[in-house]
Amino acid sequence: MWSLACALLLGWFGAFAGIGTDLAEDRFEPVPAVVAGLGLIVFTWAMTLLVRALSVGWTGDSRASRRYAAIGAAAALFVMTVQNASPAGWGLVAICWISLAPIRTGRVATALISVGTAVVCTVLYRFNPGPEPIELRAVALIYLIMCLTLPYANRLWIWILDLAEMAHASKDAEARLAVTEERLRFARDLHDLVGHSLSVIAVKSELAGKLVTRDTDRAANEMAQVRGLAQDGLRQIREAVRGYRVLDLADEIASVRAILEADGVRCKIDLPAGVVDPAAAGPFAWVVRECATNILRHSSATWCTVTLRAADGSAVLEVVNDGAPATVQVGTGLAGLSERLTAIGGSLTAQPTGDGRFLVRAVAPAHEPEVVA
């Protein structure tokens, strides 16, 4: 913006050059100079607003810029009529105008306006050359060169300014996208944590309610476990708030096994060491947790198997239970887990097998198991 505003100095330079020449040769007339000065002030005001409209928050609305350009053109013509149209004096006001007015127009329009301005200035000089006339062809050449050079130089500045604004906007968009992705990640983690904990708490609370009249000791034990689960869930939520949580696969499977067996679901675990890559261990742990949550919530399963194996350079985690629902609905939990696995080059499928069982299969890149001699 400041580089464009500096072009306004060109008009004032021409005014001071014209007044200085008149003073040096003792032909200064104060009244025309004051009138031309007032016109130059109006010109400067209009062109300042034009520069602001063209460079700050440009939205493509050319109505304001056209209005300011028209006022500036009228003021420039007025100044050159009151004084003279010499390219070494007051004629620089017109050069100042052409250097700014067409910089947001098309290439053809800029060329036509530039040539038209050179013609108008030459005609004005023909009838109002000032005290020291120059050959008309030389004046026409000077005006033509300046009118065809300065607008395109300022168009280059505008192009650089637009590039800088687009780069700044892209950084803002990237930052907003990162914030959105982090919010989605946090929401997914919070769903996994709270959903699992609340499901287990609900099951154990229901069991304690049934036992309270028959076995108070066992009911008290169940409620103690509920309290422990609530405290553990609170701890996990606090960890999630502090940063991204990486679950330990073996610990999560052991925890899920204890919870399911406490609810009467037999569990069989096959977890060989060294099969899964550390990058996939966290997502696999979330898969096991979500499967256990779904079994407690939506299934009447009596047994569940968790198997981890290597196949074709990938780690395959399979969770199978015998409580396949009549209708399968993929909730936000499994959808979020699918996104996690896709991000590391894996996949997730969840579907009934057709024989009353339900299979969840997670696949992720893995290291081959270490061979122990």
Given helix and strand content, the structural type is alpha+beta
CATH superfamily heading of the largest domain: Histidine kinase-like ATPase, C-terminal domain
Q: Helical percent range?
A: 55-70%
Anisotropy-based shape: rod-shaped
Strand content: 5-15%
| Number of helical regions | 11
**What is the top-level CATH class of the largest domain?**
Alpha Beta
Total tally of structural domains: 2
If you had to describe this structure to a student in words, what would you say it looks like?
By secondary structure, the chain is of the alpha+beta class. Helices cover 66% and strands 10% of the residues. It has eleven helices and five strands. Strand 4 and strand 5 form a beta hairpin. Helix 2 (8-24) packs antiparallel against helix 5 and helix 5 (92-100) runs parallel beside helix 7 (136-211). The chain is rod-shaped, with a radius of gyration of 40 Å. 32% of the residues are buried.
